[in-house]
Fold:
Amino acid sequence: MIRRSAAIALLALACAHAHPRSDEARSGESEADGTSDPRVSARAYHHYLDALLAKNADDYATAADELGEALVYDPESPHLHAVLAEVLVKQGRISDAEGELRAALALDAAYGPAHLLSGRIAVSRGQTLLARDHFQAAVDAQPDDPDAYRELARLLLSIGDAPGAERVAARLGERLQAAQKLSGDDAEELVAADRLRDQAAAVWVELGRFQAQHDDDAAAERAFARARSASPSDPDALMAEAAYLEAKRKYAEARDRYLRLLAQRPESPEVIAALARVALVEGDVEAVTAHARKLLGLAASLEPTDASASDDDRRDVASALLRVAVPLLGAHRSADAQLALDGALRLYPNHPELSFYRAMALVQRGRAREGALAFEAIERWLRTRQDDAVSPAFLGVEPAALSLDARLQAALARGKAGETQEAIRRVRALFSERPDDEGVALALLESFDRSGKAAEAEHLLAAGARAHPGSDGLLYALANAQDRAGARARALSTMRKVLAVQPQHAGALNYIGYTLTERGAAADLREAEGLLARAVELRPDDGAIADSYGFCLLKLGRVVAALAELRRADRLAPSDPVILSHLGDALVAAGGKEEALSAFRRALGLLMPASNRRRANPAAQARVDPPDRPDRDDAKVRVEIERKLRALAP
Structure:
């Protein structure tokens, strides 16, 4: 053993002082010995292969040892030094890795993989310029390796150099085109072209996201188009572009991208939920319901007793059902929302988030007492598990916040069930605990107003606003109380204070915009348009806000745009007589007298007493929640609609 160790030492010494060999010499030696990697000599290949097997098994200690042995036989291989550096990085031995990379680059200053890993290490240390130089050298050394392009583009975007990143993406696109022309039927060339295609699309997607975040819409659209051109069916590129188009309210184009994704992934809960979301903001509630049914079918195949269904599958489907149900509640389609939530609850029985929204659906459907009991059960469940997080957390709501909401909604449901004094007692207790919470403040107003004590609520809210002047929620509730008391000027002034505290408060934007639209002066209408456009952007699936915006556009004389927005509002909130009244006005302006008459008659039918209302389609009407408006507003709206009807059809 002593003689063998001495022989190995002599061999190591000889290798250490050997003259560098060319890649051609190394290639010939490998081929003669039957090995398959020209970057490693025949004598080192066995250790190299064992190192790769260990590395792929995440056994980095063994991999490092085997690579060290390989380097004994082949110390002048830049490839072995670079692979050892990669393994050392996995072990957290960054300084040792840098030593190996310096050795690799000393042997071959243009060795691309060494530059690539050196650049990544430089990025981790915040050495931006050094990283850029290494990535650029990697691109120049290996122009057909897409990883270097992506790292360089990502780095340039991190320092705000979008033009530089775009040049990198364009160069990668040129390499892709060249590779596609040369690939033919060769398997390796096809794989290389596929890698270039995937990374080219990924680089353009990152560039598109960057431009979108910096509000350069033209550049973002150009980047997403280039990503689609590089790889038309790339799912990540399609999803990124669809999300961008949806954010920009280009719903038809977003729907097209989501449908392309659905063709690839016909049972993807994420894509189905996205299509439902787009359908809702377009006002196509029937399509939302159809997508919900598709998700219910998926849920039925993933029952908890099904051992073949994974937890990830169940979570994805239940999350998608919840994300469809919530906007359905906002569109007053509580029956459809409840069906979706029942499907999700079959996957996760008694889940507090799912149960909360199911209770909301019950209250909207007029089953207030049943809803109150459900909210109270949720609050008890959460109270007994104070330190336990809700799992899975579909919407990321903290248990404490969910518990507060459950208490609040239970109180409101008690009021709707006729227990007005109990509702007031509970809400007052909550208001003393959380006076600056908008939901609590609005619940205080609703419960007092329901029992004819709106003035008392206004007094309490005003005192709270003085004690918490920076609370936009309190100010918003106070403004609503002032409006209900008929003090419109004071309400408008208070709503402006809300925007001073929180410029993105959609409710305040809508109130001020609608009030200014009703005034009708040119300056008021210009201001109203800007406010309401912001409100629509913040809450695109809110029928009341869509109505306000459409009404403003109509007052501005933009009939075509107004008609489109008011039709959307009607689809989002199909049982609202105010929306139907404005829609009728727009139809009159567009020359659609008969359709306008139909809209006005629908609105009047909704405002008639239930005993006198004709129900041409009871099943369809049962799917839409009844309007929830104070009687005084209904009376005012009814008089106005009757006047319009007489003017059109004396």
